[in-house]
Amino acid sequence: MQTHEFDVIIVGAGGAGMRAALESSTRARTAVLTKLYPTRSHTGAAQGGMCAALANVEEDNWEWHTFDTVKGGDYLVDQDAAEIMCKEAIDAVLDLEKMGLPFNRTPEGRIDQRRFGGHTRNHGEAAVRRSCYAADRTGHMILQTLYQSCIKEGVEFYNEFYVLDILLNEETGEPVAAGVVAYELATGEIHLFKAKSIIFATGGFGKVFKTTSNAHTLTGDGMGIIWRKGLPLEDMEFYQFHPTGLAGLGVLLTEGARGEGGILRNAAGERFMERVAPTIKDLAPRDMIARAMVQEVREGRGAGPHKDYVYLDLTHLPKEQIESKLPDITEFSRTYLGVDPVTELVPVFPTAHYAMGGIPTNVETEVLRDNVNIVPGLYAAGEVACVSVHGANRLGTNSLLDINVFGKRAGIAAANYANSVSHVELPRDSQEQTIALVEQLRSSTGGERVAPLRRALQETMDMNAQVYRTEVTLKQALIDVQGLRERYKNVSIQDKGTRYNTDLLEAIELGFLLDLAEVLVVSALERKESRGGHAREDYPARDDVNFMRHTMATRKIDAQGQEYVHLDYKPVSVTNYQPMERKY
Amino acid sequence: MTTTLVAEVVIEPESNVAPVVMPETPVPVATDVTFRIRRYQPDFDEEPHWVDYTVALYPTDRVLTALEKIKGEQDGSLTFRRSCAHGICGSDAMRINGRNRLACKTLVKDIDISKPITVEAIKGLPLEKDLVVDMEPFFAAYRQVLPFLIPEGHEPTKERIQSAEDRARFDDTTKCILCAACTTSCPVFWTNEQYFGPAAIVAAHRFIFDSRDAGANARLEVLNDKEGVWRCRTTFNCTDACPRGIEITKAIAEVKQALIFRRI
Fold it and tell me: Cα(B170)–Cα(B203) distance, rounded to whole angstroms?
C-alpha cells in the first residue's frame, strides 16, 4: 500500500473539481483524484449554456437572475447562496473566456446570450437572453477549457483512482478531515492520501434511474461515502427530470433547442405548454414541463405506436440555425433515432437528469455535519453538494454556473484552510474498511450478480419514484430497494483479477446506488407536499407551513443493529423573496 | 432490415399547430448477433485471443449495449471503458470490424451482422486488458503542443472581443473529445510512437487559429520537430475515424501551411 501526502485532495475532475484545482494548486500542494480521465467527466455532456447577467444583448441584472433561481427552485433555495451565485456568475463567465473558452459571439464580438427555461426579465415579464453558450456543447467546452488550464498550471492528476472512503480524525470528539482511501484501477492497489483539506466534487447519482441522461459512471460515490460516515445528506427527494430526453433512450437534448425557438407538441400537434405556462410557454422551468408532458401521455395525447412520448418541433427554424447552434443534438437525434430535426419532429420524454440535493454545505462550501457545525477541512461543490442554490428544482444552465462559482470558492477555501493548519493523524487502521470491502467482493461466492440487481433498482425507481409519486408508489419503491439491499449482500463478481477490475468497480458503485435510492425514497415519503421536482399526487399543493424546510437525512443504527434513515430538517435561508404562487 | 413507417397526419392550419408529417418509429425486432472480441486478461493470459459471444439486440442498439449485456449476463470479466454512452466523453473508442469507432455511436443496424462483428482495442497504445489501452502516451503528446490559451498584452476587464468570423476559424477543432480514435488509426503512429499524432495536432490547431492566442510560434516550433506535423502522410484515416466529424486532415494541412508561410 502506498501513502501520499498533500495539502489539498480534490475528488472528482469534472467542472467543479478542476475549477477548484485551478485555485487550490496555485496556493497549496494539490492533487486531483478521478475514477475516470478528467475529460471523460459528465460536465462535458452539458449542452445549452451558463447563465450570467452580462446584459450583452438585452437589459439584465443579477438580481433578476437571483429571483428566477429562487422562484424556479420553488422557494426551497437558500437565498443568500443564490445571491452569491448570480452575482459571481458574471466573473465566472469572464474567467472562462479569459482561459480561452470559445463562446459564441454577437455581431459586435461580445459573448452571445440566448433564452433558457425559467430565466426572465424583471421578475417574470418575459424570457430573457441570459445563457452564454458555445453552440450546444457548452459543457464540453467548459470541461476542455478547464482541463487545458489545469495542464497550463501543472495540476497533478491521479487518473483512474477510485476514492472509496474518507478518513476523519475524531480524537477531539468532532470529526476533522484527515485523508482519503483510493483504489487504483490499473493495479488494484489501495492508496492512502493524507490531506489537510478534501474537496468532494464527484457529481450526481442519475444511475439510480433507468431512463437517464447521466453517464454510466454517475453512481453517487461521493454522497455514498459521506452517507456511510454518518454525515447528513440534504434534500435527496428532489431529483430533476429533464423534459427533453430522446424517447426511450434518455439521451439529453438541450433546453437551448427551445431557447432557439423549439416547441413541444402532442400527438395532435398542439403546443400544450400554452395551456400550462401562458407567458413563457416552452421555456417554463423543467419540473413544470416534465409534468405537463407526462400528463399529455396519461390523457391519451402522447405520440408514437404506444402513445408514450411527445414531440420536440424545430422544423420551423432555419436549417442553418439548427446546424450551427444545435449541431450535437441534431446529430444525436439522427444517430440514435434516425430522425432529422430539420424536417421531422423529434420524439422526446423526461429523463432523469440532476440531483438538487446532496452533501449539505454553507456558502464557503464547507461540509455541514448538522444544521450548524462544519467538518473542518471537508468541502463539497457541484452536483454532489447542496448549498442549496437549486432548491426543489434547478433552472437550466445553473449547474454549469454552480460548478464554476462554488468550485472556485471551494478551491480557495480549501487551500486557505490547508495553509492555516497542520496535518492531523490518520485514524488507526484507516484503510482496513476499504480493504475488507474490496476483498469481500472479490472473494464472495454469493449467487447474486451486479447487472440484474442494478436493472431491478432502476426499474422500480422509474416506475415508482419518477416525475409523479404517491405514498403507494414510494412504499413500493422502498420495499423493492430494501429487498435489493438484502440481495446485494450476496453479490459476487466474476473477475478475480487485480488489474482494471471494472467488475469489482461496478459492484461497489451499485452499493452506493442502493444506499442513495433508499435515502431518496424515504425522504420523498415524508415530504407530504408537492414542490419543484417532487410531485406528490396525494399531496398536490405546496405546503409552506409544514414543508418549507430542507430535509436532512442521516444513517443511524437502531438497538437491533439495523441501519435506518433518520430524517431531520433545516430552515430555508430567506433574504428578499417571500414565497409566492409559482406561475409562468 | 428496418422498415420506416410514416403516418401522414392531416392537421388544421392553425398557428398553434405543426404543419408537418409525424414520424412513427418502426416496431423493433431483436436478433441474435455474434461478437468476436479480442480478449486479454493480464492476470491470467499469456497472449490475446478471440472469443465469440452471441447476444440478442435490437437494430437501434449500440455496440456498447452489446458489450454491457455480455459483461452483465455472460462474462463479468470483460473489460472496457465507457461513461456517457452517447459519444461525448470519448471513453469507448475501439476497433469494430477493423475500423476505429466509438462503441456508443455505432448502431447494430449500421453494421453487417451476417458474420461475427470483431471488436478489439485501439492500436498503437500499450494493451492493458481486453479493450483497455494505456492512454498516457496519448495525453502526453497532447500536453506537448501547449494546448491552452497563451494570450498577450493587457487583460481586459470584460471579455476579449472576437468576431464571429474569427470564432468560426477554429470551430471545427474545438469539437475534439480526445477519444484517440484518430491517432490510433494513423499508420504513421502505429510504426512510430514518437509521432504526436493527429489529435495533438488538432489541439494545436484549435489554439493556433484562435485570434485571442499569441502562442502560435511556440506551438509551431514543437510541431516542426521531426516527429511533428511533417510525419503526416495524408492518408485520411484520422478524418474517417473521427466520431465528431472533424476534418482532421484539413486541420493538419492548415498547420503545415502555417509552418511554411509562418503566417496564420
Answer: 10
Q: How far apart are CA B117 and CA B25, in angstroms?
A: 26
Residues 215-244 of B with CB under 8 A from A: none
The percentage of chain B sitting over the pLDDT mark of 70, rounded to a whole number, equals 89
**C-alpha pair distances (Å), B258 with each of A288, B147, B209, B234:** 52, 17, 10, 16
Residue A278: count other Cβ atoms within 10 Å of its Cβ. 11
Q: Which of B60, B81, B213 to mutate to test the interface with A (most CBs of A within 10 A)?
A: B81
Work out whether the CA dihedral B183, B186, B190, B191 comes out positive or negative: negative
In chain A, what residues touch B88 (CB-CB under 8 Å)? 44-45, 137, 140, 328
**Residue type for position A452:** P
Chain A positions touching B81 (Cβ under 8 A) are 40
CB contacts of A266 in chain B (<8 Å) are none
Contact A271 B42 (CB under 8 A): no
Q: Cα(A25)–Cα(A6) distance, rounded to whole angstroms?
A: 11
Q: Name the closest residue on chain B to residue A275, using Cα atoms.
A: B16
Q: Give the pTM.
A: 0.96
Instruction: Say whether A217 and B155 touch across the interface (CB within 8 A).
Output: no
State the greatest distance between any 2 C-alpha atoms of chain B, in Å, as a whole number: 70
What stretch of H or E contains B74? none
pLDDT at B10 over 50: no
Instruction: Say if CB A216 and CB B67 are below 8 A apart.
Output: no
Query: Given an 8 Å threshold on Cβ–Cβ distance, is B84 in contact with A144?
Result: no
DSSP assignment of A359-380: EEB-TT-EEESSSS-EEEEEEE
Q: How far apart are CA A32 and CA A22, in angstroms?
A: 10
CA distance A492 to chain B (A): 10
Are residues A382 and A17 in contact, defined by beta-carbon separation less than 8 angstroms? yes
Nearest to B145 by CA among A148, A22, A96, A159: A148
Q: Which residues of A touch B53 (CB under 8 A)?
A: none
Query: By C-alpha distance, which of A457, A472, A459, A365 is closest to A411?
Result: A365
Q: How far is A478 from chain B (nearest CA, A)?
A: 25
Residue B24 has pLDDT above 90, yes or no: no
Measured CA to CA, the distance from residue A60 to residue A63 in angstroms comes to: 9
Q: Is A286 a catalytic residue?
A: yes
Of all residues in chain A, the percent with pLDDT exceeding 70 is: 100
So what's the ipTM on this one?
0.96
| pLDDT at residue B3 in the model | 39
Average pLDDT for A360-367? 98
Find out whether B39 and B48 touch, Cβ atoms under 8 Å: yes
* Mean predicted lDDT score pLDDT of chain B: 90
Question: Could you tell me if residue A435 is left (phi over 0), alpha (psi between -120 and 50 degrees) or otherwise beta?
Answer: alpha
Which residue among the candidates A228, A265, A286, A582 is catalytic per the annotation?
A286
Q: B21, A344: Cβ pair inside 8 Å?
A: yes
Q: Is the pLDDT of residue A71 over 70?
A: yes
Phi, psi of A312 (to 5 degrees): -100, 120
Residues in chain A within 8 Å Cβ distance of B105: 335
- The residue type of A311 is Y
**Quick one: cell of B220?**
509551431
